[in-house]
Amino acid sequence: MAGIYIHIPYCKQACYYCDFHFSTSQRTLPAMIDAICQELNLQKDYLPGKPSLQSIYFGGGTPSLLSPLHLERILNTIYKLHHVETDAEVTLEANPDDLSLEKLQSFYQLGINRLSIGIQSFQDDVLRQLHRAHSAKQAIEAVRQAQAVGFRHISIDLIYGIPGVSHNRWLKDIEQALALQVGHISAYCLTIEEKTVFGRWYQKGKLTPTDDAVAAAQMALLIERLEAAGFVHYEISNFALPGQFARHNSSYWKQLPYLGVGPAAHSYDGHSRQANIANNALYIKSIAAGKVPAQGEVLSPQDHANELLLTGLRTIWGCSLSRIRQYLTPRQWDGLQQEIARYVAEGYLQLENDTLRLTKKGKFIADSILEALFVVD
User: Fold this and answer.
1) CB neighbour list of residue 166: distance below 8 Å, 6 or more residues apart
2) Secondary element (H or E) of residue 308
3) Per-residue pLDDT tens digits for 67-76
């Protein structure tokens, strides 16, 4: 089983916190659709053994900017080149301001069966602070209209740790998300990335990041409230009702192969990774010449071990130590065991038979734990 990720590198406007690859000019969009379909042809044999596809994911950028005709053309190309499971998960990332009832109906008729809606907050002043293009009213309406059209798998994105946003206001966002009765919620702590508006403001002293203790308290509120509502905290930033786990993203965490298409898209075939150039014009030019503009890297045994730690520990499934051990030298394995024992003794990690997982309190310092466990020589 495998998946395909399609990167759509366009947005209406730049959110102040976002450092993903995108352009606010859609001038090259028609040529980009051509290039994406052509890359699908060029990369049709990338996935080893031509496995069935269990997921297709349109990410970005803002894929909901595309017309139904654009999406139909890409989907038709995928179905022509690959065997897609009849119950495959087909996800479209969307912004609320793009989701008219007519567009939602068209998306649903195309076979898109999961929406990931970037809401971030249900409070208008916070949305303006983040430089989002939609209002709180549009966000609520978009979810309700999607449900009315027939979408049963809807995920919404939220952000916590936003400067100036109190615990009570954050809790209101959580309660509003629950009131909408969606099955999946992704919640991310705001990070100040260097090459963003917030990053520039931070360098100039115009923005003070939320204190780590405040952000941790808001994460604790999130976990407590969502788990009380029946959600499973199945990955550090992801919560879902039973049966609503994101199949495509779970394949990343389980180290399953996937093909990434479009500028800045990444791919993994089980042995190596490759990344397409993050430049729209150069990507289109290269694909037109029949060449995928990607740089690849064959993973070393150490890389495999670290990736298993990175992806597995973030999830409820944890990681298999026997699987990790096969990639390490005896000295590396001894060093890793010592670090694991320390964090188990301190209550941050739990070792059950062969499976290593973060404990509840370990989730709050996951990055620090991973940094300590990574094998560096």
Assistant:
1) none
2) helix 301-312
3) 999 999 999 9
